[in-house]
Amino acid sequence: MTRGKILLQPLEDISARKVSFKKRSQGLLKKIEELSILCNVDVCAIMISPFDDDQTFWPSSHLGIQKVMERFRDLPESEQEKNMFDTIKYNREILHKLKEQCRRQELRNKEKDIYHQINKHLNEESFIEENSPDIDEIIFIAQRKLKELEMKRNSLKDVI
């Protein structure tokens, strides 16, 4: 049986949040250790509990953490920042992607609306009002669809 997806947002219940933090932090430390051993990479982690004054370090020796931090500090600043990801940068990227999705959806919706207008009034003598603000877009979409139909017809002629 597979686990269901959970909504990634802060847990409202404090005791559930504490339990989740404890379990997930233990799992994270296990993954960090596995990554270090299996891939032979230097890794360090510092976790500070929001529920008490407890701090967790991996590796547990401060010398191991110091070694990784010194290697990091020895890198040029551009290399240090290359793979850093802060919440502001993350939120900007998410916002940019959502804006782009909205823009594409608006275009699809507008095109569907124009198709609907065309289909609704196709048999009427004057289906586009002369002062319609969308007349240029309707003409553009109609021309594009006409070209698509001509290409389909030509490809069918080539098959026959």
UniProtKB/TrEMBL annotation:
Sequence ranges assigned to domain MADS-box in this UniProt record: 1-61
Record InterPro entries: SRF-like_MADS-box, TF_MADSbox, TF_MADSbox_sf
Swiss-Prot/TrEMBL GO biological process terms: positive regulation of transcription by RNA polymerase II
Keyword Nucleus among record annotations: yes
Any single Gene Ontology cellular-component annotation: nucleus
Claim: Acyltransferase is one of the keywords in the record: no
Compartments (UniProt record): Nucleus
Keywords carried by this UniProt record: DNA-binding, Nucleus, Transcription, Transcription regulation
PROSITE patterns, A to Z: MADS_BOX_2
Pfam families named in the record: SRF-TF (PF00319)
GO-annotated molecular function: DNA-binding transcription factor activity, RNA polymerase II-specific; protein dimerization activity; RNA polymerase II cis-regulatory region sequence-specific DNA binding
PANTHER family in the cross-refs: MADS BOX PROTEIN, MYOCYTE-SPECIFIC ENHANCER FACTOR 2
Annotated protein name in UniProt: MADS-box domain-containing protein
Source organism phylogeny: Eukaryota, Viridiplantae, Streptophyta, Embryophyta, Tracheophyta
